[in-house]
Amino acid sequence: MEPIIRMSGVAKSFGKNKVLHDINLDVAPREVVVVIGPSGSGKSTMLRCINLLERPDEGEVVIDGHSLMAKGTNIADIRTEAGMVFQRFNLFPHMKVVDNVTLAQVQVRGRRPEEAKERAISLLRKVGLADKADAYPDSLSGGQAQRVAIARALAMDPKIMLFDEPTSALDPEMVGEVLAVMKELAAEGMTMVVVTHEMGFAREVGDRILFMESGTIVEEGPPEQLFERPRTERTRLFLSKVL
Amino acid sequence: MYYAFRFDIIQEYLPLLLKGTLLTIGISLAAIANGLILGLFIGFGKMAGFWPLRWLMSGYINLFRGTPLILQVLIIHFGVIPPILGTTNGVVAAIVALGLNCAAYSAEIYRAGIQSIDAGQREAAYSLGMTHAQTLRHIIVPQAVRRMIPAFGNEFIVLVKDSSFVAWIAVPEIMYWANAAKSQYYHIWEPYLAAAVIYFVLTYTLSKLLQWIERRVK
User: Fold this and answer.
1) Which end of chain B is more exposed for a tag (fewer CB within 10 A), N or C?
2) pLDDT cut 70: percent of chain A above it
3) How confident is the model at residue B212 (pLDDT cuts 50, 70, 90)?
4) For residue A86, which residues of chain B lie inside 8 Å, CB to CB?
5) Alpha-carbon distance A241 to A144, whole Å?
6) Does A242 touch chain B (CB under 8 A)?
7) Cβ of B139 and A79 within 8 Å?
8) What is the pTM of this model?
9) Contact in structure between B9 and B181 (CB atoms under 8 Å)
């Protein structure tokens, strides 16, 4: 099957610090790829190269057949197909929850406001927050805010969803509610790339696990293989610290 | 020894002081309008990717912040306006000088307001497929404006008070008439206290108005 995400030879530096070396990654439609690894290993930077929040210095990123690096590619169009959920939610604080989920549908997808609002309410219901539609983001708990952020991304009907440590800023008792929504999404067949420290989630939901360190993909494989029989010493060492 | 406070001096000059008040208000409003618009371009110019523009705008801001306002007023009145208009014109020079000065400070308020918005807000908007212009209009500016209002409030109040410098170029505003009364009667307290009361009423009203606006947009 044609991959929906293809990264080939992607490299990225911040100043003199090279954070990604020659990353090659294909993600198939409906696949859930979970990226693990120590802090500073380049996981988030790799994820952010997929929707060009970071621009790779070298290499090529192709989303659903469209090259992101080619001149003339409309980056905004491609970003519309790749929803992203951030560690710190990044809800728009000056808008009600429902307007957070509606704005881009109207501005980017060109939907009628009533239609967009209907879609927003149904997505808020899906994440269990229909009753918060008229609340402002700062009245939400972290778990609720992150579920709204997921609804906001889903409202664009993206083909892929990118999760950048979606539970790392949450109090422990709120992690479960966010992971539950993500599991449901995976079960529905959404293509997902998830950067996380939640090893339980990785093992249960991931079709494939990538272990990254020092800007390279050290090892990848199905969860049972990577967690039970890691091939490299570096993976073994990392897992021994986090499991 | 006691000071014989002569209310009759204030009484005599009151109509002139009130006419001067209208001129102070008019000059201040015109200068604020100029400063806000020009400052917007300078502020965005300073954030531009094109370095010569950025450099030029920084230079403008540093020049107007780094030299005394009174010097700017005198140079513009005697050096800049006459070659353009063919004659001196105090009111025009006052509006231009105060406006250019206000633009430098306003530019920094715009820039600081825009840059105070967390980068995550822009990234979230981009990740939803919004363009740079849509992101500015719907996400950045509405949040930034709220943070700019108190800073603009300060700037406007400073401008109203600093407009008193244009008495130096014989613009007949509040300070000009207070000086005239002092020179005529050699009395300090009456004219200057009257002027102080008028300035205070103006700035206090302005600060209340801005507080009201600040509450409204919250």
Assistant:
1) N
2) 100
3) very high
4) 120, 123-124, 127
5) 30
6) no
7) no
8) 0.85
9) yes
